[in-house]
User: Fold this.
Amino acid sequence: MSGAVVWVAILAASAVCFATKLAGHRVPEHWLAHPRVARISALVTAALLAALVAVQTFTRGQALVVDARLAALAAAAVALALRAPFVVVVVLAAVVAAVLRAAGLA
Amino acid sequence: MPTLPRSRPGAPADPDRRAVARQALSVSAATGLYGVSFGALAVAAGLDVWQTVALSLLMFTGGSQFAFVGVVGAGGGAAAAVGTAALLGARNALYGAAMAPLLRVRGLRRLAAAQVTIDESVAVATAQRRPAAARAGFWWTGLGVFALWNAFTLVGALVGDALGDPQRWGLDAAAAAAFLGLLWPRLAGRAAQAVAAGAVVVALLLTPVAPAGVPVLAAAVVAVVVGWREPGPRLGRVPDPSGGGRDAPDGGPAREEAS
Assistant:
């Protein structure tokens, strides 16, 4: 995407996200109270985040690859299981990947 | 995790008020701090500092912001980036519907309330017993996170800009870890775990054949299929700040203590 296209995408996505929030404030609560709506909404969030984890870890362009990111992700998972704060988890993953690459191991 | 005392009999005047303020401040600080990681990752994904700052100011919903830069960083098109951000922000509508009867605001105040309707503000509000405390919790947390998230986004963008080659510093791996951190508190329950596993498979199978950005968007279909049919327990509940469903302006990790 060129800079101008990125700006258009930023403004469009921000407008949609704001409209979503405002819609919640404006519609009668029972419209959104259907269990199926709440259920799908929660699951969509999980699905997109899981897909983002996979794409960010195992792909380079359109190729599927296994590299230092997998070890970094494993370290992040251990940190999360140990209830480490978000910032620690993110920095740890960066350090693991950077060290492995600097050492020529992955 | 320890929860904040909601009221303490015999404590000095208005303990509720002070507890809410303390909770709002701690949530704002914890959430704002990882605006640094968003700022750095956005710049690593190819956005400039102004675009990064604009995302935090205007979009202001962490999961959507991380997803947007993730799709852009993977070379995805504008439609895929907008679509993914929009879908990840969908739960904010549920939050808004839950907050509206409590806040009862109109006009400009309603617009402001809408913008700060995120995981954290709603979580702090719903943790309070009295409506007045819930309103205070919503506003203080919402405005506190807004201020700190934007300030730390700028810091992160400037740091990321100075770092240079993102891969050398492991920033691509950091982005994966950030998504995992956002996902982690949402994996409670079998349906969510099954959907996450299915989404991983769909996204990776489509990556070699579909344009960038599409594999992530397509993974949402797994959620619709499972959520439509599965008559399990209600999963769309508002996260509890003391329990672990909390995240970045909306989606993040829940590991910091709320006290």
About this structure: The radius of gyration of chain A is 19 Å. The longest strand of chain A covers residues 59-60.
